[in-house]
Design brief:
Layout: E1 3-10, H1 32-44, H2 46-52, E2 67-71, E3 74-78, E4 83-91, H3 99-112, E5 114-124, H4 131-140, E6 144-150, H5 154-159, H6 166-179, E7 184-190, H7 197-210, E8 214-219, H8 227-234, H9 247-263, E9 267-270, E10 273-275, H10 282-288, E11 293-296, E12 301-303, E13 307-311, H11 315-323, E14 329-334, H12 337-350, E15 355-356, H13 357-364, H14 369-377, E16 381-384, E17 387-390, H15 398-405
Parallel strand pairs: 1-4, 1-11, 4-5, 5-6, 6-7, 7-8
Antiparallel strand pairs: 2-3, 8-10, 9-10, 12-13, 13-14, 15-17, 16-17
Helix pairs in contact: 1-3, 1-11, 3-4, 4-6, 7-9
């Protein structure tokens, strides 16, 4: 039976982080309900809407369909019913929504698909957590919360334009536990303005004391279109561009996290992700393993196995289109064999378990040894029989490894 993930995009925030260039906006809460109604309509009418937009709906990602699905590099017919087993409500700040909006979205999924929901994640910011809301989330079916902690330093949080402070994290975590959430993930960012070796260690120590089941550590990426990015290019002090750690310091922070989280009992399973045993993110693993998922909402991406497509990013245009019975798709591409192979290598190597070269060579009718020999000689990858993985000491420069691999 094909297992499908569903992603819901909620593009609303209370404020825009200085480093953010995502297609999110700070809008009146009066716009939440029409947006949720549009998302629910897209879910319930997804097959008709996709067909009208030119997406190959023979991929059968709804109820009781025959599905051509690019499985392990080959086109196959899967005469099974697609079952949704993971839902991820991300953003943006989905925890801003009224709990009844979350309930409505999950109800629409249950009505439109066969479901066996093993993991239902809601992204949340600490300052938005309230006891009544948390209880309602659990009642709706949320069983995992991904927490945008970013840092335990108030100085760093303020410089980044975050709304919450350290105290909000300590207030929110027990509220989620008391509501019955037994799977909580914390996100940290390495490289925030004013971050030091000492403050980074403080964040790691406090994170471990609160004991989340999952941890994500992201290296700060500065986009030229963000406020911080523009300040880096043009100079100025408003967004603390002059207080950014160096690339070497960021790499050191990452390596410190590697060592610390291993000692704290977390298994490093993907470049940016660690988990206690049994708590890997099931939904995100679908992305890295090239399994099918459907995205709903403004800017949401989807992958059927043979095609990738994305909705238009503008939330107002998205709502208007759905109200008129149309899905505003702005990207649609067939996944070629060459592109699929690149994804196998790039996404596969993000996982610490590595990739099985013999399988990929067999299924794509290619030879890969020559690609990996110079990387192995340089100590960037390790080979154990047919398995190739990134060298643990080189994970902080993984992007450079990927660039070399794709040459």
């Amino acid at each position: 039976m094909m297992r499908v993930g569903v992603y819901i995009q909620v593009p609303f925030c209370q404020t825009k982080c200085t480093y953010c260039n995502f297609h999110t906006g700070v809008v009146s809460s009066a716009r939440f309900a029409p947006y949720v109604e549009a998302v629910c309509r897209e879910i319930r009418e997804h097959r008709q809407l996709l067909e009208a937009a030119g997406v190959d709906c023979s991929s059968g990602l709804g109820r009781q369909e025959h599905s051509p699905f690019l499985h392990q590099g080959k086109q196959e017919w899967l005469c099974h019913e697609a079952t949704v087993d993971t839902v991820y409500i991300g953003g943006g700040t989905p925890s801003l929504l009224d709990p009844m909006h979350v309930q409505s979205i999950l109800d629409a999924i249950r009505e439109s698909f066969t479901v066996e929901l093993a993991e239902v994640t809601l992204e949340a910011d600490p300052e938005t957590i309230e006891a009544e809301k948390a209880v309602a989330w659990v009642r709706a079916g949320i069983n995992r919360v991904s927490f945008g902690v970013q840092s335990f330093s108030d100085t760093e949080l303020a410089a980044a334009g975050r709304m919450h402070r350290r105290a909000d994290i300590y207030k929110a975590a027990p509220i989620l536990r008391d509501a019955g959430i037994r799977n909580i993930g914390f996100d940290l960012i390495a490289g925030l303005p004013h971050q030091t070796k000492e403050s980074w260690q403080q964040s790691l120590d406090e994170l471990a004391a609160l004991g989340p089941e999952h941890v994500s550590v992201y290296l700060l990426e500065i986009d030229e279109g963000s406020r911080l990015g523009r300040e880096v290019l043009q100079g100025g002090a408003r967004y603390s561009a002059g207080a950014l750690p160096s690339e070497d310091e960021m790499a050191e922070f990452y390596e410190t996290a590697q060592e610390f989280l291993a000692r704290a009992g977390y298994r490093h399973y993907e470049i940016s992700n660690w988990a206690k045993p049994g708590y890997d993110s099931r939904h995100n693993l679908k992305y890295w393993r090239r399994e099918p998922y459907l995205g709903f909402g403004a800017g949401a991406h989807s992958f059927s196995g043979t095609e990738r497509w994305a909705n238009a990013h503008d939330a107002a245009a998205y709502v208007s289109a759905l109200q008129n019975g149309r899905l505003p798709i702005e990207q649609l591409e067939k996944v070629t064999a060459e592109r699929a192979l690149e994804e196998e290598l790039f996404l596969g190597l993000r996982q610490l378990e590595g990739i099985d070269i013999s399988r990929i060579e067999r299924e794509y009718d290619v030879k890969l040894a020559a690609r990996f020999e110079p990387l192995a000689s340089a100590g960037l990858v390790e080979r154990d029989g047919d398995v190739v993985r990134l060298a643990p000491a080189r994970l902080s420069i993984s992007n450079e490894v990927f660039v070399e691999l794709m040459r």
